[in-house]
Amino acid sequence: MIVLNSISRMLAGISLALKQPLAGYCDVETSHGDALVTKQGDYLSFIRIGGMKRMATRADIERLSSSLRLDLSGTLENKGHAIVGWYLSDPDQAISEIERVNMDACRHVAHELGIDLKDILDERLRLWASTMRWEASYLILWTRRAVLTKEEVKQMNEEKAAAAKQCPAIGDSQRFFLRSELMAAHHTGFVRRVAAALHGLDVAATELSAKDALIASREAMYRETVASKWSPILVGDKVMPRLPEEDVKRPGKEGLLWPSLRSQMFHADAVTHGGQRVEIGENEYVSVDMTIGPEDPRPFVELASYLGQDRLPWRCSFILEGGGRAGMAFKEIGASFLSIFPANRDLQRAFAMLRSAREKDNHISVKLRASFATWAPVGQSRKLRRRASTLSQRVEGWGNCKTARIAGDPLDGVMSSVPGLALASTGNPALALLGDALPMLPWNHTVSPWEQGSVLFRLPNGAIWPYDPSGGSKRPLVIDIFVAPPGSGKSVMANTINIGLCLSPAVLDGRGAKLPLIGKVDIGSSAEGFVRLIQEALGPERRHEAIYTTMQFAPGYEFNVFDLQVGCEQPLPLEKAFLQNFLALLTLPPEESTPFEGMAQMIGLVVDEAYRLCTDVPGASPKRYRRGVEEMVDAAIAKHRIELHAEDPLWRDVVTALCNVREYRLAEIAQRHAVPVLEDLISAARSEQVMDMFANLKIALTAEQASQLFERYIYDAIRKFPTLNSPTKLDFGPARIIVLDLQEVAPTGSAASNRQTEMMYLLGRHILARNFFLKPDYLRYVPLPVRSYHARRFQEIYETVKRLDYDEWHRTLGSPQVRAQAELDAREGRKHNIQLGFSSQRLSDMGDALISQSTGRFVLRAGDEKESEEVITRFNLSEASAAIVRHGLHGPGPNGAPFLAVLQVDNSKYEQLLVNTLGPIELWALSTTPGDTALRNRLYDKVGFSEALRRLSKVFPTGSALKEIERRKSDRLRGGEVDARAQTGVIDDLADELIDGRGIALKLRPYADEEDEMAIAAE
């Protein structure tokens, strides 16, 4: 015995000191469809687990696990089937996953669009890689030969023997004859049953192909191969013949066949160091085994969240094998015989509890083993020890487990957590109720419905959550509402989504890449930073494609709501609907919200008559052309030698002539003088056709005839809003991103002010989105001469991604006309590929119609308890989401801006607490805080866009200088300075310091050139 022990210790020492062949740990021999086949003839398949669509409490997960138990008890009752729950979290490789799901596509789209967002994208990558982590989760389903009956075993052996006889000696090639249709049938049924059970719980689950399964296994083993282009060669793939060595006289057939999976999978052997560390590839690993299961079984998501916050790379493997009760029968008998000893009485009571659960609830038991591992780069043993200690402590705190970091062979322990190679583990087997074991598997975390997205959010524990702002096929109707009090990050969130829309692959098509069409009705400058960012990215030659303008009642801001599509003489259906809506609001007393009886019909007829009177028909008064009004039009007439009527030239003739020579842009300018303006409605209302029909219509409230009241309100509108009574001069040209700030023309307070604000919202919507609703179906309303031009134009606009945003939507409260237009847009949006976004401070501001139609709800914070309960009730939130609304939304902070996303995607509801994490450059670029924007704009003017953002991000890395501004302002106020002057003076001083590199900006000195340093030193 002494000799044997000495020999054993000697062999163990040699084993630990030498490299060990990893190929010996791989049982996988070949593939059969999407399944892998082992050398024993067992089958296994990988199911990728995305996770749950909604956050869940522990009680929710227990309820779902109970349902899952009922679905799976039949398959795990006896031996033959096993479920391996495998999970990996790797912050060190987050950069690879970020590149895959976001950065690669964003960089490609930016390149195709010709926009330079390199600084922003590089900053995002640096920041996200330090706060996010790669997360992967699989269920590996095993079907072993034990599922077969004696007759099936005999039949399978005969089939394999016959196949082996017909197969020549193939050496170290894949033994494809191990496939069995009998085993495949049993395995397919098992896989479908598990997948159906998961889908029944709204858990995203997708079966991997055999190739993807092997890639996942290899990347788990060699972490440095993540995101590589390696792919295995399987039976049926094209393979290049391998020549034998020259001294081989009778080469076998293996050089012509598919090489063994072991030879493909493993490229570096393992080296053990001491009794715990194992070197595989570029990393050293330590295993942690669960020796005693949890006293209080808890959902896996709790363990993953804690370790995710620790930013610890780790993986785990939970093996659930059927027939656990039978496997423990001998131990139960032994425990009953030895019950006189106190330690065995606990075992006997445990077995009695399991037996009772089976008898009362048909609750079966399974054999459970669990292995964990963590790693660090080779040579960083101290870091590895710290990580192993943290992993062990976290696992032990997960329901009071017991763990061990020493296995008989450390390589066995490490390889126990590599998925899909073998059904083996160094973890101690435990007998657990299936209902207790299922929540411990990694299926109860949450998932994004998108695998890739041009916007990247993260979970609080660091997991990556891609978001596709274009919606795509998963979300064809995009109607977003943003709810939060001021200062909660609504504007930054909306700008983040709009930047993502610009970088979405949806902007690419066969005609080339173009910016999406984005219009925003803004109150204040919440989107000014977004526009400036896009302008700088486009460069000086294309900055006109993004425009931010403040609407005013001043020369240069004239806009005529009666403009037409070039070449047309009548408005398109949706254009006419807008005109009727707008004029109904214009002719309504400020205190009223419902148009007068008959007024809507009269307005419709007046509009038709106004357009008729502008055409060359008997009794009409078409607009006369005059030279000098539009110089570019005059030059085009001369260039193309267009002949007009010598005595009575008409603007309509100019439009027709320019269309004939394909000068459509100039024809559009000319047409602005050929259409009605507000004052033309007076003549139209006095026409015989209108008077005959509405002469007897009186308004009871004012005792006026309807036509008199109509004229009175039109005259009043012309007096108040002269810019609406002139041909259009507010020309955005080829701009694709337009933000219209209504701050100066949308007052609040009195009924008259509110009415003006309502009108400006409708007008802003028309200015921005007039062309958004064009589609090929409208060609029948277009005159034949310009139909071919509009056919291409309508088709391109129809296929382009378009988004229309409204800020401060609460200002439209009490305005049925504005809300009716928005609701119509929401209903028609999907048909026209239009997205809509609405921001406001309270949920009730949105109105029931918009809330019910919305498919994206972003709650950044609730104002008070009443608002919280309204959000919870109106959105029908789960208990987990309700707790977040009540207690988990605290506004933007150093780690980002948390928010609750409630999305309708693929006919499913997703609820998730997410964090919008942006770097200081992007935060400064998108900031909407008055003090910050004032400081930023001063630096823009002095040092340029990029340099200003660089300096601000270095000096104020949180993305705001408010604390410093407030501190200095307080000092000035204590000195007796006036409030407004103190604020301006502080911002001026800060700007000077940032420009000169002194004071608070001394940290900028290392980045200055030598001349700047000498100048600063001289000061």
Give me the oligomer status. single chain
- Overall shape: it is elongated
* Structural class by helix and strand composition: alpha+beta
Number of strands: 27
How much of the sequence lies in strands comes to 15-25%
Chain-averaged pLDDT: 88
Distance between the termini: 87 Å
Kindly state the percentage of residues in helix.
40-55%
Low-confidence stretches: 1-6, 11-19, 1007-1019
Largest beta-sheet characterization: 14 strands, antiparallel
Quickly count the helices: 37
Radius of gyration: 36 Å
Pick out its properties:
44% helix; disordered C terminus; disordered N terminus; 16% strand; alpha+beta; 27 strands; 1019 residues; nine-stranded mixed beta sheet; 37 helices
Describe the structure in your own words.
With 1019 residues, this protein is an alpha+beta fold. Helix content is 44%, strand content 16%. The chain is built from 37 helices and 27 strands. Strands 1, 2, 3, 4, 5, 6, 7, 8, 9, 10, 11, 12, 13 and 14 form a 14-stranded antiparallel beta sheet that branches. It has a nine-stranded mixed beta sheet with strand order 19-22-18-23-24-17-25-26-27, with helices on both faces. Strand 2 and strand 3 form a beta hairpin. The longest helix has 20 residues, at 94-113. The N and C termini lie far apart (87 Å).
